[in-house]
Specification:
Strands 10, 12, 13, 16, 20 and 21 form a six-stranded mixed β-sheet that branches. The protein has a three-stranded antiparallel β-sheet with strand order 9-11-19, with no helix packed on it. Strands 1-2 form a two-stranded antiparallel ribbon. By secondary structure, it is α+β, with helices and mostly antiparallel strands. The longest helix has 17 residues, at 2-18. It is globular. It has two domains: 2-230, no CATH class; 240-444, Immunoglobulin-like (Sandwich), CATH 2.60.40. It is 24% helix and 24% strand. Helix 4 runs antiparallel to helix 5. Mean pLDDT is 95; it is low at 1-17. Strand 12 (288-296) and strand 13 (302-305) form a beta hairpin. The structure holds heme C (5 copies). One heme C (HEC) binds next to helix 4, helix 5 and helix 8.
């Protein structure tokens, strides 16, 4: 029985292995029914299934903000300008890979309940046999669906499928095939795996799995033996628990005692202690991380401290202002005279850790496909520490005595003026306090 099956199976594998399709060229190469539904896997892999349901992986197509950006910006942009049509189709290569492979692009809206809704599904991930080419980018994984489910463990037996070890499940290129993205202008609009590779975790060989699919003792299937099992929680930007304290913060004054007409200087240290890549990473065009410092004197008056500029090129994009930006949303939305919306939406003078994306007019954009140039990279790299200083001339009305000073590092998945403008549900622009710290000075006569 087994032997017969093997022969049957090897033939198509070998033929396809000669010219495996990957990335854009795989459009329309596999009908939906080549892939099993996640609910089939659920019957045995009960816990893994429930983890995946909760993870963004199972919502990559259905999630509200993805739906808005895809259907209201990317698809219309591709209709107005055919140059962007393949890019808009390509969104599905990572967000709704089954639809992409089936050639069902654009797929029906999530409310219609098509198989695009399976998003990054079990069978898609476990049919990947290779990443094509020498760099992981733009969904260049090779998928060979069928009876064989590939994974990182050799020698497992299953009543439902054949299991086979494949080295790619131990390589970060596996993740990088969807977590690195180059847009049609040749700009790296997503480069999480490349950031990892160039950083200390890449050098020391600590892959994505260690932090995003941690192993714990348990059963991977109801009938399996206990073992160390890879958890499928994929915590990331949507998990407050993951984001909180990923960056450590501390602050001290350069001098503790300050005359009432003097100047206080505070130094803040920010250490990326937990992430294997830069923070923020991934959807860098959307994410914003900012440092807010306030002082409170003995009378309870609160003063906002602005960061000291360092003088590097492009720094103006790393200090909050009330400028407008994102005017290129007018193209897909077909708006005339659109002045844009707030660039930052955070207190003016706060330090922002980001890398701005610019459109052809040099204005910041959240439309990664329309990005012509990247600005200064002022994110915080893995195990990197950044120092910021705040010079504060004592205000005339300062009360004598103790002044407490607090620093807060905030995180937002989507810059708020854009979220409000596009009516993206508030949870996408909620402020997550990543970390806080405080110190004090003594003001004397
Ligand atoms: C009838 C039960 C059953 C069903 C249904 C089932 N599996 Fe499995 N699967 C198992 C068992 C049992 C194992 C072996 C677990 C062990 O021994 O640790 C396994 C192992 C695996 C492995 C590990 C492979 C490796 O070598 O690391 C993967 C991946 C996998 N299954 C994927 C799937 C996917 C995807 C589906 C749905 C399309 C699915 N399974 C459906 C029972 C099942
Ligand atoms: C087939 C494409 C694909 C592959 C392969 C893939 N991912 Fe993802 N991943 C996505 C997409 C798409 C999202 C975005 C989901 C969303 O927010 O819409 C995502 C989101 C995430 C998130 C963020 C969740 C959040 O809360 O914002 C993490 C973490 C993640 N992936 C880790 C991994 C790791 C680790 C691997 C390798 C084991 C991997 N991914 C492989 C497509 C993929
Ligand atoms: C040393 C642990 C560690 C490693 C290794 C690691 N990450 Fe992360 N990752 C984190 C932490 C902590 C966060 C949450 C902080 C943040 O948002 O960056 C995170 C966040 C993310 C996010 C969400 C970021 C966002 O802003 O949307 C994605 C996507 C992601 N990781 C993917 C990956 C991929 C892919 C790899 C491998 C190439 C990887 N990570 C390696 C710890 C790690
Ligand atoms: C983003 C891709 C991705 C998705 C989606 C995904 N897996 Fe996995 N899965 C992996 C990777 C990678 C590993 C190996 C991780 C490791 O060992 O470090 C793995 C491991 C496994 C294992 C073996 C666990 C162990 O350690 O014994 C099983 C079983 C499994 N997956 C089943 C499933 C099922 C069922 C689903 C859907 C409910 C699913 N996977 C969704 C990538 C994925
Ligand atoms: C090469 C794979 C890939 C392609 C192509 C791709 N994405 Fe993504 N997308 C991802 C990954 C991975 C993430 C998660 C990154 C993170 O967590 O920071 C993501 C995140 C997003 C997010 C933010 C999700 C959130 O919850 O914050 C939106 C919206 C989005 N993508 C829309 C699109 C649109 C629209 C397109 C097409 C123009 C597209 N993506 C093309 C891989 C891709």
């Amino acid at each position: 029985m087994r032997k017969v099956f093997w022969i049957f199976l090897l033939v198509p594998l070998l033929i396809r292995a000669d010219d495996p399709l990957a990335g854009e060229e795989a459009l329309g190469s596999q009908p939906y029914d080549r892939y099993e539904r996640p609910e089939v896997c659920q019957s045995c892999h009960t816990s893994i299934y429930q983890q995946w349901r909760q993870a963004m992986m199972s919502q990559a197509f259905t999630h509200h903000w993805d739906e808005i950006e895809y259907f209201e910006l990317a698809v219309p942009h591709g209709e107005i300008d055919p140059f962007f049509k393949p890019v808009a189709d390509g969104c599905n290569g990572c967000h709704a890979p089954l639809a992409f492979l089936a050639g069902d692009v654009p797929p029906p809206r999530p409310a219609e309940g098509s198989r695009a809704n399976e998003s990054v599904s079990c069978d898609l991930c476990h049919s990947i046999v290779a990443v094509k080419g020498d760099k992981a980018v733009n969904f260049n994984w090779v998928s060979q669906p069928g009876r064989v489910k590939y994974g990182a463990k050799p020698g497992l037996e299953s009543p439902h499928h054949i299991t086979r070890y494949n080295e790619i499940y131990t390589k970060t290129e596996y993740c990088g095939s969807c977590h690195n993205e180059m847009n049609p202008y040749g700009i790296w609009v997503k480069s999480t795996q490349l950031e990892w590779q160039e950083g200390p975790y890449g050098e020391q060989g600590v892959p994505c799995f260690v932090c995003h699919m941690p192993k714990a003792r348990g059963r991977s299937a109801t009938m399996a033996e206990e073992d160390m099992v890879a958890q499928h929680v994929f915590l990331g930007a949507h998990s407050e628990a993951k984001v909180k304290s990923a960056i450590e913060i501390s602050m001290h004054p350069l001098e503790r005692e300050i005359p009432y007409d003097g100047v206080a200087i505070f130094q803040v240290e920010l250490f990326n202690a937990k992430a294997g890549h830069k923070i923020p990473t991934g959807s860098v065009e959307d994410r914003i991380l900012w440092l807010h410092v306030e002082a409170r004197d003995a009378d309870g008056h609160v003063y906002h401290l602005e960061v000291d500029p360092k003088g590097f090129e492009g720094e103006e994009y790393t200090i909050a202002s009330d400028e407008l930006a994102y005017t290129d949303m007018a193209i897909p939305l077909q708006l005339d005279d659109f002045a844009g919306v707030g660039r930052d939406g955070v207190p003016v003078g706060d330090r922002i850790f980001r890398m701005p994306y610019f459109d052809e007019n040099g204005i910041m954009t959240i439309q990664q496909w329309n990005t012509r140039r990247l600005g200064v990279d002022y994110r915080i790299g893995p195990r990197e520490t950044r120092l910021e200083t705040f010079t504060w001339e004592m205000p005339e009305d300062i009360a004598l005595g103790k002044v407490s000073v607090s620093a807060t590092l905030n995180y937002q998945k989507l810059v708020k003026p854009v979220a409000d403008f596009l009516e993206v549900p508030a949870e996408e622009s909620e402020i997550v306090v990543m970390n806080t710290t405080d110190t004090w000075i003594e003001v004397y006569e």
